[in-house]
Amino acid sequence: MDFVSPVLEVASLICNCVGDRADHLRRLPQNLISLRAAMEKLNNVYKDVKERVEREENLEKKQRTHVVDGWIGRAEAMEKEVNELLDRCDEENQKKCFGTCCPRNCRSSYKLAKMVREKMDAAAELQSEGSNFQEVTVPLPSPLVIERPLEEKPVVGLDSPFREVWRLLQDKQVGSIGIYGMGGVGKTTLLKKINNKFLQSSIKAFDIVIWVVVSRPTNLERVQETILDRLDIPDDRWKGRAEERKAEEIRRVLKTKKFVLLLDDIWEPLDLLRVGIPPLGDGNQSKIVFTTRSADVCGGMAAQKSIKVECLEEKEALSLFQAKVGEDTLNSHPDIPKLAEMVAKECKGLPLALIVIAQAMASAKTPEEWEINLQKLRQYPKDVAGTEKDLFSVLEFSYDSLPDEATKSCFLYCSLFPEDYKIPSKHLIQLWIGEGFLDEYDDIQEARNQGGKIIQMLKHACLLEVGTGPFSIDGEYLKMHDVIRDMALWLACEKGKKKNKFVVKDGVGLISAQEVQKWKDAQRIALWNKTSIEELREPPRFSNTETVIGRMKRFMFPSGFFTNMSVIRVLDFSNVEIFKLPAEIGSLATLQYLNLSGTMIEYLPIELKNLKKLRFLMLDDLFSLASFPNQMVSSLSSLQLFSMKSLSSLLQVVEIMLLLEELEQLEHISDISTSLTSIQSIQRLFESHKLRRSTTFLQLEHCKGVNQVQLVSPSCIKELVLEKCYELEEVKIIHFEKQVAPSKFPNPQCCFNHLLSVRIKACNKLLNLNWLIHAPKLQYLRIEYSRIIEKVIEDERSEGSEIESGLSVFSRLIYLTLLNLPKLESIYEHPLPFPSLRQITVWGCPRLKKLPFDSNICMSKKLENIIGRQDWWDGLEWNDQTLMHNLTPIFSTPWKPIKC
């Protein structure tokens, strides 16, 4: 019969699938479910391990262990193999006999079933192994040496001491070398040259070269922390620990290494055992090289060899002097080269003096000017014998050459900052204005411009130098060479005759009340860092004091502290633990500058309203401020600058609204920095022509319920910060009452021509920043932690279009930073020249596959750094491979975490 054949076929198949094979086949459906569950668990563990590895590699300067790397590879291979197996199972399932649940090929199905069981067990084993990793990374090895920049290239006159020090470094019998000589003779330059010599790949004699600036006063903790950081010892092993514990950590690591320790600018013997440096010898052949001004320090440090750096020979000195004066001046008259030789001789070969005086003479292009200045120089001692006073007598010539008393006062003022301090130029100029040095300028911007000119003048005279620091639109960082600073203090104290006229204390610990009483004749007082004053039982008498800069850790005002300050102009207690401000501060009738930023003050005394001459009031980062006194700001009739960045969360919206109204009432206000947290305050600011014209810094933070911000143009805002405005979707530009479409370029009067810096953080609903086209002079752009932004500027125009003002998009941009923008795909749709760009940083932007650079980016030679992850860089797409090859040398992955 017809039904007999199928029945017999089924019976035959069933007979073949018996025993163990039948058991595997029967369990296959459940095993497939178990396999998928096991792979899901394995995948979760894989993600956790991979994220942990990448986080530690990127942010903690570490590399994955070989075990973990092998496990990740096996987990990835397992996933691929299981997916293929599951696909085969699905195909086999489709081949079952018609009308039955039996496979057509039991042998093949049995093999698959067996493999499913094996993979299920293997996945469980892998998952268990990954769950038990205690450590997934190990620290990366530190580089042998970090290059130190040399200011003078080529270095003049140091060949002989360099060869001697280098020879001693290879002498197994010599462990410590002291380099000494007078200030400004080139000791630090020599040490940098030695440091950089180790960069040569052929030198493999040491494991690590460590550079430490010791400076004055000696700060053992700072020395230890510099070494700990260089050795990459984890913070949790030494941060906040006692000196002895830090020393143990340093000793533990250095005992295993052959090291070179370079200590620059030692002023007194340094106890290396207290620092944690193991004794030299015992066959480890490590070396210590240090610089100092005193041969006595070489003895106190038990240097096995001491090398004195002498002043330059006459020929070398003249060569350096002529290079600094410049060919244009030297060739301006036939008599000048001979006069230049005579002036150079007066410097006695001291490099710093040669440079300073050459700069002072660079603009003298007639023989008469040279003869007059040569006669002035000869009034000072001819022989530079090595003492600081003799050095000052030479360096004072540059000070005397400054054009007026205001410039000289500005120069001497710089000596109030500690050694090696990075002085923000804008902050310095504001202090100068507060002191009255620039009183001839009523307008604050004119005074700032003049302050900028004075800084340039002091830099050209080599009395100020350019310092290093993070980018700021407020200008560069400045520093004073320590010899120049010592000379400035000597001059400020009337060549040492009035010791306490300028009182500057940096990290000296507790100062007694008796010592404070000696400051009664002080004109300026500056207390820095770990300096404190014991509790004063009676107020000090500072009747001649014009300046108090109290950058200490903590200070408590004694009763009547401000009652004896009849001529005070500047009070700066920023970043000091001050909890209460005495009401008597309102009696300081001459006060012009008050900075209370970063203090712990909870209430501002209403008596501040009596400061009728106050021109600068800084109240940034007062996170403990509970309320703001009404009618206080509006009473400050001379106020020109008001700054209140990063508002306290305790302040109410109504208080901010009242504050804006009071600022609007001030006649002379011209510079406002403020943070706003509500749509009402934003509208209030932009509705006021005066506030809009005066606001230079605007921060919008934690603006709840704000999904659109309308920025009114024209505006004088220089810095704009949008932070944690979680509901903000759109920024629009309004020219008076007329909205400007985001995709159209406005004419110049509609632009934010003053806007130089934009920072955006955690604005998770912003899709793009098209409104940035209205900021043609933007220099700094930082965008971070904004989840859905896809394009910085979504261009709807034809390629190469420009703003009507003639400025192309991002033509002034110097720094571009993009951090943790998971959906970012484009910065700009078309290639741009970026003629000003110095650095671009991209981190955590996996979808950004193209950089909008055209070929001119290499021609400008401005771009110095491209920073990002290596895998991101390797995955970039390039239309021009030549461009990629030209930019590769300036790409780098940071050693340390990128701060967000």
Task: Report on this structure.
By secondary structure, the protein is of the alpha/beta class. 36% of the residues lie in helices and 15% in strands. The chain contains 27 helices and 31 strands. Strands 11-13-15-16-17-18-19-20-21-23-26-27-28-29-30-31 form a 16-stranded parallel sheet, with helices on both faces. A hairpin with a 2-residue loop joins strand 24 (730-735) and strand 25. Helix 13 (336-346) packs parallel to helix 15 (367-377). The longest helix is centred in the first third of the chain and has 41 residues, at 19-59. The protein starts with a helix and ends in an 8-residue tail after the last strand. Mean pLDDT is 84; it is low at 13-17, 379-390, 737-749 and 797-806.
List the helices and strands and how they pair.
Blueprint (H helix, E strand, L loop, with lengths): L3 H13 L2 H41 L2 E3 L1 H28 L12 H26 L5 E3 L19 H11 L6 E5 L6 H11 L10 E6 L6 H11 L12 H12 L4 E8 L5 H4 L11 E6 L2 H6 L4 E4 L5 H12 L1 H4 L5 H11 L4 H11 L5 H11 L10 H13 L4 H9 L9 E2 H11 L8 H17 L4 E3 L9 E3 L2 H11 L9 E5 L2 E3 L1 H5 L6 E6 L1 E3 L13 E6 L17 E3 L20 E3 L20 E3 L22 E4 L8 H13 L5 E6 L2 H9 L1 H6 E7 L6 E6 L5 E5 L6 E6 L2 E3 L16 E5 L18 E5 L30 E5 L19 E5 L12 H5 L4 E3 L2 H5 L6 H7 L3 E2 L8
Parallel strand pairs: 3-6, 3-7, 4-5, 5-6, 11-13, 12-14, 13-15, 15-16, 16-17, 17-18, 18-19, 19-20, 20-21, 21-23, 22-24, 23-26, 26-27, 27-28, 28-29, 29-30, 30-31
Antiparallel strand pairs: 1-2, 8-10, 9-10, 24-25
